[in-house]
Design goal:
By secondary structure, the protein is α+β, with helices and mostly antiparallel strands. The chain is about 45% helix and about 15% strand. It has two domains: about 120 residues, no CATH class; about 55 residues.
Amino acid sequence: MELLRPKAIAPGMTLGVVSPSSAIEADDLEKGLAPFYQRGYKLVLGEHALARRGYMVIEEDRQPGVFGFGSSVTYTFKRTDKPDSDLRSYERYMLSNIFGNADERTLDSLRYRFYTIISRIQDELYREVVNAGFFTANPERVRQGWAGLGIGLIVLAVMSGVVLLGLDSLFVEAVICLPIALGIVGIAVTVASGAMPARTA
């Protein structure tokens, strides 16, 4: 079997940089990109999906440092006049949390804000994929339900095993394998719970 190797990158080539999924400090982003700029690479930064669709504009303000050292970059999100009525619920929620009542926000100002709304966005995303018909039910709730069932079976196996071991009869030796089997099934269900959500497409 032949291995596919990507073409080696060389100075002067244009590289695509995927946008981070959550807010990142501009200084940290710049530190990561600086070696590529210094080696002569051209970088194309991926835009946020809402920016590509015209709901906001992302502006980069690069301030050079003294003798080329200590340069800084500030990224500013600016809300456009495009109405959000055609956005999905999770997109509308995300947009409203980026800007609040303001027309523009810097990336630094979102540093400690976004992690607080991630769980709500996940819930909205799950609701959307169910409504779109990709899943028959909320995938996270299905996973939690199966994991709960598996843990319940393990607890039941342990409790019934303790009760049976407390009895002194030949009958116990014959049926002790039932709690063991129940525990094995419980472990299997718990481990497999992550794969239980049923896709429709």
